[in-house]
Amino acid sequence: MSSQTASCSCGQLRIEVEGEPQGIGVCHCFACQRRTGSVFAALASYATPFKVSGVATEYVRIGDQGAKFIFRFCPVCGTTVFHTEEGDDESVSVAVGAFSDSGFPPPQVSVYDSRRHPWVCLPPGIKTFEKDPV
Ligand SMILES: [Zn+2]
Ligand SMILES: [Zn+2]
């Protein structure tokens, strides 16, 4: 199985994941917009195990459905590299941009479409949800 490494902007914090992503999605919610500084977040989820190197600071955010998301970001450059959900020890969500791979497969799911900037166009065939589908 192949592994892929995602890294923060300065290279201090890295995560190595195994195999293909279980799912790839974009989120247009305001929390993701603020967190990334971009107008949407792109995330790929991977099955455990994963390997982290470097130091990460944790930031916990409670989602609209009550889920506790634990974001890990680099204390040096501030990039959010990955997050996990409390109670879910089987997967990790990694920021797609942290892979520095413009050939990364496109997202299959778009959530919080109600917050999407109207100029952001989505790939054909993508599933969209007004909010969080969970
Ligand atoms: Zn960094
Ligand atoms: Zn979001």
Explain this structure to me?
- The structure is a single chain.
- With 134 residues, this protein is mostly beta strands.
- The chain has a single domain (3-128), classed as Metal Binding Protein, Guanine Nucleotide Exchange Factor, Chain A, CATH 2.170.150.
- It is 5% helix and 40% strand.
- The chain is built from 1 helix and 11 strands.
- It has an 8-stranded mixed beta sheet with strand order 6-7-8-9-4-3-10-11.
- The chain is globular, with a radius of gyration of 14 Å.
- The site of one zinc ion has 9 residues, from loops.
Q: In short, what is this structure?
A:
The protein is mostly beta strands and 134 residues long. The protein is 5% helix and 40% strand.
